[in-house]
Amino acid sequence: MLEIRGLEAGYGPAIVLRGVDLSVPAGRLVAVLGANGAGKTTLNMAISGLVKPRAGSITFDGRRIDGLAPPAIAEAGLVHVPEGRKIFPNLSVRENLDLGAYRRARGNKARNLERVFATFPRLKERVRQMAGTLSGGEQQMLAIGRGMMAEPRLLILDEPSLGLSPLLVEEMFALIRRLHADGLAIMLVEQNVAQSLEVADDAHVLENGAFALSGTAADVRADPHLQRAYLGL
Ligand code: ATP
Question: Which residue windows are coiled coil (predicted)?
């Protein structure tokens, strides 16, 4: 579904990504793991059209998307839920969700809204509340709910567990598991290596802008380097 080949990207003279290859097949949950500064955000921004690749290709359903503008990429069904819960704090929960309904999904807004409320009953209870007054966990739910309003075919989750308490992190991973069980393809970008490997089908470990390790989540978890460097074993 998503195919990245030989991707190079950076900022000005600084090269951050050096030859990244990545596949996310339909219905699969692929984790991209890495420490601070490894290049995870840059990879996401390149996929979403916010950073222009210098080399390589990104195709989605066989169509080149590198070089397209971000709205066109979202319109194709590749929906990015950014880190840091970038919701609109001065708009209500409902208004934030409405903004997620892109052109393609606009006709199904009522149905999609029901789906989001079924997944996140807490958002339904708070439709009129200003988003900025939601708890951290609720804001993260809202960010994912807004992504779901766009009818994603592939959902990119950027560090969804960042800044959540341990209990909410558990809830977040349970939710990711549920979205995946419903058949959604997910690219999960995370620093939380242990829990991501539990939910993922495949995993890639980004170090200094290139994948140091790629394989099934089980293979990656069994790797001695990963266990030493990321799991402290
Ligand atoms: P984190 O988990 O800390 O967000 P990350 O894996 O997402 O890290 P990136 O944000 O992709 O890493 O950053 C990779 C490298 O690119 C870092 O060295 C960072 O300083 C650099 N970088 C990021 N954004 C810019 C920018 N706008 N201009 C110049 N360099 C940047």
Answer: none
What whole-number percentage of the chain has pLDDT above 90?
76
Phi, psi of 182 (to 5 degrees): -75, 0
Q: How many domains does the chain have?
A: 2
Within a domain: residue 211? yes
In short, whether 44's Cβ falls inside 6 Å of ligand 1 is no
In Å, what is the CA distance from 10 to each residue of 59, 99, 125, 189, 210? 19, 30, 42, 18, 12
SS3 label, residue 134: coil
Mean pLDDT of 77-88: 84
Among 134, 151, 168, identify where a domain stops: 151
CA-proximal residue: ligand 1, atom 28 (nearest): 11
- In this structure, how many other beta carbons lie within 10 angstroms of the beta carbon of residue 43? 27
Which residue has a Cα nearest atom 20 of ligand 1?
37
Pocket test for ligand 1, best of 8, 11, 157, 187 (most atoms within 8 A of CB): 11
Q: Can you tell me the ipTM of this complex? A: 0.91
pLDDT digits (tens, 9 = 90+) for 160-187: 988 888 988 998 999 999 999 989 999 9
Cα 36 to middle of ligand 1, angstroms: 8
Atom index in ligand 1 nearest the CA of residue 43 equals 11
Kindly state whether residues 64 and 134 are assigned to the same domain. Answer: no
Q: Which atom of ligand 1 is nearest to the CA of 41?
A: 7
Instruction: Please give the structure tokens belonging to residue 7.
Output: 């991707």
**pTM to 2 decimal places:** 0.91
- Give the pLDDT score at 83: 76
